Amino acid sequence: MSQRNREGKRGARERLREQRERDRARAKRKRTLGVLGAVVAVLGAAVGVGIFASRTDDESGKSGSALVPPRGAVGKGRLVIPSGRSEKAGQEGKAGKAAPVTLTVYEDFRCPGCKQFEDVFRKTVHELQDTGRMRVEYHLVTIIDGNLGGTGSVRAANAAACAQDKGPAKFRAYHDVLYRHQPQETRDTYADNGRLIKLADQVPGLVTPAFRRCVEDGRHDAWVRESNDVFAHSGYASTPTVLLDGKSVYGDPKKPLSPNKLKRMVLAAARD
Prior knowledge:
The chain is an alpha+beta fold. About 55% of the residues lie in helices and about 10% in strands. The protein is built from nine helices and five strands; from the N terminus they run αββαβααααααββα. A hairpin with a 2-residue loop joins strand 4 and strand 5.
């Protein structure tokens, strides 16, 4: 074989070897890119799940997004805030015999008539509660917001529910503070959470970081709206609606209620 032929064969083999090396390198790069692509895809999916979870967490914490009853709420849908002795616990959680009579009050913290009832009957109601003769069940509604506009009714009711989270004594004290400082019906002062928190300073131990968050975040807003919706379908048309063991006892001008008359009615009902 001539020298030229031998050099030609070596050149062909060399070119073939080099082509194979290039093919192997190309295949290796493809495999590497495939693995990296899979890793990126997995990481991307993980990031996507993280973003979704983060958004879900954020949305679940929106003000009033979930119906959250205050601590100790009772009744159907847990829409009632009780005050006084129940069958399971005595006044303010102490053991004791259940109160034999129940006063049911549908009220709105912006309602002038509700303030009038509180101003006249507050002392008597507390006395009957504290002596174990009567239990009060409060239904918080927002009728003035609906009639005049604004958000003061729902904001104040939410703040009162936040006070209930701290215990029945805090609710009762803050409930009384809100009525003592009730603004004029046409002024939506209670729409200001800062005002509600400032008033809460009058109740020792009520204003804590948790209470502030509860008020500012509207933790119980949906619960308040549900309570108002039930009231709207209850057949009662105004606030305050006051029932003694289920029977209306307030608001009839022909048979006006007085503190002494309420005491007599409670004592008579307890004897029955």
